[in-house]
Amino acid sequence: MQAAKITFIGGGNMATALIEGLRKNQASMMSVAQPVLVVADPSADRRALLADLYAIEPVADNAAAITGASLIVLAVKPNHVRAAAEQIRANLLPNQLIVSVAAGIRLAALQNWLGGHQAIVRAMPNTPAMVGSGATGLYAPPALTPQQRNLAESLMRAVGLVQWVQNEADIDTVTALSGSGPAYIFLVMEAMQAAAEQLGLPAQTARLLTLETVFGAARLAMTADESPAQLRARVTSPNGTTERGIAALEQAGLRAAFAQALNAAHQRSIELGAQLSADERAV
User: Fold this and answer.
1) Closest CA to 124 of 73, 180, 174, 185
2) What is the span of the domain harbouring residue 46?
């Protein structure tokens, strides 16, 4: 079977994470041979780096790069999406699938900037995709074919977990949860390490114990049959140290703080989406 061609418009961090994931999972793209990968990026330095890292030939011309591609990944920064879309739309064929990983750009804006193109999937990945442990929310309009959905899912599955959402508005919730979520966990880790240092542990010891604690807890939660609440209860002995620490966190309003964080991030995602997609006119 002929190998699929995948074109990345933009050669930044998310594009490179996906390329690395595809290299490691050679048969992931719908059970075909290793896909042919093309990257279009305006930076000569970036193109040289990509060529050196992945033995591919990056190009500067977005429009030429999509010729013959079954899948096109819009991986430029959100404020560059419109320009990139307008550069490729004249060369775009109806059956070519677009996957946009640009945060905030709504489907209606993408469709209009791409000249009415309908085969589009919105993806909201997160930064752990860089190490193959990402969590991605996907949304597609009902008109997308099962084959196109499978293609988009296979792409993002190369860098981690994939979950489809039913409504485009749910992407804002995904953004607040898993998109911004790694930063919440990093903040928790900062606080744990700082508290341990204040209690006298050396910085490196506190750091390593914090990292392994968070990693181990996540791994246990992913492999156990119990819910996080059940796992917490299992290690919280009556009148023990963990019970006292949990009580302090509850009294400090940890649950309310996380609810406020997700609500604030959700609202900001809505605001940014409106700003970035404000002009949805095709030109």
Assistant:
1) 174
2) 5-167
Chain-centroid distance of CA 20 in Å reads: 14
DSSP strands (E only) in the chain: 5-9, 36-40, 71-74, 97-100, 120-124, 134-139, 160-164
Shared domain for 156 and 25, answered yes or no, is yes
Q: In the chain, how many domains are there?
A: 2
Residues 83 and 187 in one domain: no
Model confidence pLDDT, tens digit, residues 4-28 = 899 999 999 899 989 888 887 754 5
Given 3-state DSSP classes, what are the helix, strand and coil percentages for the chain, each rounded to the nearest 5?
55, 10, 35
1-10, 44-53, 251-260: which has the highest mean pLDDT?
A: 251-260
Taking residues 41-68, report their average pLDDT. Answer: 92
Residue at 267 is within a domain? no
- 107 with 224, same domain: the answer is no
CATH, residue 190: 1.10.3730.10
Question: Which pLDDT tens digit goes with each residue over 224-241?
Answer: 999 999 999 999 999 999
